[in-house]
Amino acid sequence: MTARARDERTLRGRVAVIGIGETEYYRHGASPDPEFKLALKAILAACEDAGLDPRDIDGFSSYSDDRSEASRLAAALGTHRLRTATMQWGGGGGGCCAAVANAAAAIVAGLADCVVVFRSLAQGQYGRFGQAAGIHTVSGERSYLMPYGVLAPPQRFAMRVQRYMHEHGVRQDAMCAIALASYHHAQANPRAVMYGRPLDPGKYDASRWIVEPFHLYDCCMENDGAAALVLVSAERASDFRRKPAYLLGAAFGSGHRAAATAHNAPLYATASFDTVAPDVYRMAEIGPSDVGVVQAYENFTGGVVMALAEHGFFRPEDANDFLTFENLIAPSGRLPLNTSGGNLAECYMHGFELVLEAVRQVRGTSTSQARRSDVAMVIGGPMVSPASNLILGSEATL
Amino acid sequence: MTNPTARYLPAGLPIPVAEPDGLSAPYWEGLRKGKLLVQRCSHCNAWQFGPEWLCHRCHAFDPAWTEVQPCGRIFSWERVWHPSHAALKGHGPYIAVLVELPHAGGIRMVGNLLGDPAQKVTIGADVEGVFEHHPESNPPYALLQWRRRQVSSK
């Protein structure tokens, strides 16, 4: 490596995903296994996919209050030594790409050689996200919201989307198109929880309101399961059995006072990618027109509208024209979106299933393969702080 | 403006209290007295809500509390149908609004929009605050609600 390359602060092309794995995906509360066991199953599946001895893992990375401790995983798997253990702060699914970036950074910095990134959820064991717990008093940010019935995630995000729709003239049809594309792709994906349960515009329109402007089908599922991937340095990528997917860029964070309570972020009608999107393109050394397929975290469809616009795929005022069913489906829509079904229809694995799907796209093994899939983007956790994103590419893109 | 009896949402939702460190205590005490108190830095005059231990703009600690008129305009809104708490089962829909206070640096606060839950809500509409008192509660508290402001009365 030249001195210049050594000094260049980038992850571009320096690490590769060599294995992916997941458990069966279950409806929330339906997993027969506890959460920690699910994590072990997904990690072993990812190692099997790579052709890697799990004992050679030397690091773990997850996000958002993960309950499967790295040291316990290392002990259970019998890894020879543990060298990195990171968990991304906050942000719900906003950490799904940041967890990959943290793992990659550890490898590039020489802290570890082979890091597993994972997420596991068993809501039957630990309770659901979407229900307010039975608490008597609240303080801090929640005290300015919960007494007014702004309790659960849909209620916390609907006002932000409503404002965005108002500012840019976005119509309900744009959000519907995102749900339709996700369900369409899930019908080709036997892993998907909503496999065999198609959605059409009439069913979308007739579905109950959760909170205006979100119909039932604008809201993510909640599920049980686990997913994992294995990262190694690019130099070692060809030692394993699968075609590697290289990390071209990753970024996370949020803009000026994005987390100001309660709903006081100066830039309110945003998915939090105003500063993060330029960062990922800069590291990847590409622009939006180079991206062939996108997996965008859908806590709610409205967040996808905002996130895609902030990543430069269209101007906000063009959202209604761009976000049509035809434009969003594989193989040859303008921007095939959530090609496994995503949080809406494959499995809500806190967005981590989106990262695995981006790897499949680059490998060419998706059940809804996009025609342009050499460069695949993942966008994590719109409207939260910190949010994160990443871009994967094939060897040809390096 | 005070309505001593009415409550917008059914009883049983979590009761707001100040943090153990007391950061927001002046705000909640103010509401119980029918006053809206928010932070305004006495060094650089920046407005701030919710409260913080320092001014986000000039980093002076312990921003001063100042009373402002509870009036503003609707910045965004939502109509909630799905109950996310046992107290709301069988109730609803109801409206939550995000109200912007232009005379206080544009700070925003969430409340309910009083009146017909089926009413049309317009972003930019003028609203005025209504203090909703819960003296019987343990601990007692007050909320700030909002209703459409009639231009002719101003």
UniProtKB/TrEMBL annotation, chain A:
InterPro entries in the cross-refs: Thiolase, Thiolase-like, Thiolase_C_2
Pfam families xref list: Thiolase_C_1 (PF22691)
Cited Gene3D superfamilies: 3.40.47.10
Superkingdom of the source species: Bacteria
Molecular function in Gene Ontology: acetyl-CoA C-acyltransferase activity
Domain Thiolase C-terminal: 257-393
Protein name, UniProt field: Acetyl-CoA acetyltransferase
Organism: Bradyrhizobium septentrionale
From TrEMBL, chain B:
Domain ChsH2 C-terminal OB-fold as annotated: residue spans: 65-132
Chain coiled-coil ranges: none
Domain ChsH2 rubredoxin-like zinc ribbon: 28-62
InterPro entries per the UniProt record, alphabetical: ChsH2_C (IPR002878), ChsH2_Znr (IPR022002), NA-bd_OB-fold (IPR012340), Thioester_dehydratase-like (IPR052513)
PANTHER family in the cross-refs: BLR3430 PROTEIN
Name of this chain's protein: OB-fold domain-containing protein
